[in-house]
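[step 3/7] fold_predict: job queued, chain A
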Amino acid sequence: MSGSSSVAAMKKVVQQLRLEASVTRVKVSQAATELKQFCLQNAQHDPLLTGVSSSTNPFRPQKVCSFL
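[step 4/7] structure written:
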């Protein structure tokens, strides 16, 4: 049994390696350039850079209502 399970495991490994080898690769410099370009194009929509208005902020503190 262990021999056939070992063969099956090795077949899975070979299949995974073939899948990984078929993936098209991109140079790091090209990926970094594209990421920088994407970030600059979408900076105006990024709430971490532009902030969130208090009227549309779902995480704003709730108003406290107290009775005297």
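[step 5/7] annotate
The domain at 2-56 is CATH 4.10.260.10 (G Protein Gi Gamma 2).
DSSP finds three helices and no strands in the chain.
exit 0
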